[in-house]
Amino acid sequence: MPQSQPQPKPMQTVKGIPVSPGIVIARAFVLGEAETHVPHREIEEREIETELVRLAGALRDASADLVLLRDRTEQQLGREAAKIFGFHLGLVQDPSLLGPMRERIRRDRVNAEVAVADCFKKVTDQFKAIGNEVFRQKANDVLDLERRVLGKLMGENESRLSALSEPVIIIAHELTPSQTAGMDRKKILGIATDLGGRTSHTSIVARAIEIPCVVGCQRVMQRAEDGDLVIVDGDTGVVVVRPDARTLEEYRSQQDRFSHYRAILRETARLEAVTKDGTRIKLLGNIEFPHEVENVLANGGDGVGLYRTEFLYLTNDHEPSEDEQYRAYRHTLELLAGRPCTIRTLDLGADKYTQQRAHEPERNPFLGLRSIRYCLAHREMFKTQLRAILRASAHGPMKVMFPLVSTVMELRQAKMILNDVCEELEEEGIAFDRGIQTGIMVEVPSAALLARAFAQECSFFSIGTNDLIQYTLAVDRGNERVANLYTGASPAVLYLVKQVVRAGRRAEIDVSLCGEIAGEAIYTMLLIGLGLRTLSLVPSQIPLIKRGIRSVDIHQCEELARRVGSFDSERQVLTTLRDELRKVDPDSFGGWIAE
Ligand code: PEP
Ligand code: MG
After folding, report:
1. d(C-alpha 58, C-alpha 153), whole Å
2. What confidence score (pLDDT) does residue 586 get?
3. pLDDT the model gives residue 86
4. Is the pTM here over 0.85, yes or no?
5. Which residues pair with 351 in a beta bridge?
6. Counting atoms of ligand 1 from 1, which one is nearest the CA of 350?
């Protein structure tokens, strides 16, 4: 009888949420467990201390994870099931294991990874040698723990990633914003994840670094294996695992059409963002890192409207010093060469954690101690950032913006601290811009509703629809399960936007909008119609939005805004916006339409 051949696995198509445009085809790299390959390095005497600190950090992080796991398991499965993590915790804090690890680093001058691997191996061998099933099981636990600690030391998957010889598509359950920010564009062509929403920060970062990305695929991790050929279509949200020949060919030709369309758009980058009847719209870029300024300028942006400074914290293993921050901000201004920059103070918390905060989980982080609240509660850290910002302000036009302000008191407190810092600098004779403008992100309904009061106490507003949508509609912006409820086309959200623009106009202060909808073509006419004249968006979308602006006139936009203002359902709003865009710019309708 002929031997039966293993059947090739069939093609699988998964639908997720498209968050960063473009079509890519490459092999899958499934981000999974911590790597087991341990790098061996002999260290110099002066490195001993560093390795000991690394070891302590990894053990501390592993312990923190275990505490979380133990508590969660106890809640969900009961005390008995949680005991396993109690055993892990006991071991990871056991002096008879930790002592020899430290000793190995000091005496044998090896890196922390080797010390960990060797010491855990000894324990595993001892358990195995007892030869009884219970202890064999314990040996597995030790192995598990070893992986966890090594993962902390090595940065999970980093070694495997750095060994890649060809670019890949990352398949993951979930990525953190800092993991995404650290991705090398040359090695990583695309991303598909199980979790996430359109405005979760991982998605925003993927867009910023222009990696095609689909999130919220729910079970793509289960369907793809390392090395499988995968297609990620960041325009429609489709991910195809092991495509058949016909599908592959179809996507290849779409890829060509997409690059052609992008090339046409690049031409628009050089043109002015002006409506047909001559109204100039300011298009600024949202950035996370100074080097992105180049991208803003290459795409024809007028400056930076939102600099998310927290990313300097997220991508560092230590809290950046005043000087490190000052250098980054100054560098940004230098690259902008006289163009304006609105710098946002730290917006940490919710889905953006520092190493330290990861250990202080909150039950409801999006409603917790985040953003300006966190800064007001950690004044020294806040003051350090404000000093760095003010020092940099001597090198170019800069405004300061406070995130997630929800009460007038918060704004007053933040301004008071800023004043204190100004006085300190003055006394020290350090140069800064004495007339620096301060403004707020309007991204919480309370701020939008009280916009008239806020307008008396600050110089500008920037409407952050990403958060404003989530807080107005009570829909988590990063949760794929409720992604269908998350939309900027909500009449409630649009009503708030309109009120904020009005309040700003009345008080004669600048109002801009920097949420992701500023970069989505279907909203452009509506936003102009609502009275906005400054938009800040992901740099790569600037040409597309410019093109939209150049195809309309103000009256058309105002008429559309009036019409949409009378609707009470998001579906009606969306359909109308789509129809309008199709009429004024059918080609861009075929480009990236997010909704
Ligand atoms: C927003 O909330 O709209 C915004 C621009 O800020 P972030 O996306 O960083 O929360
Ligand atoms: Mg926000």
Report:
1. 6
2. 75
3. 81
4. no
5. none
6. 10
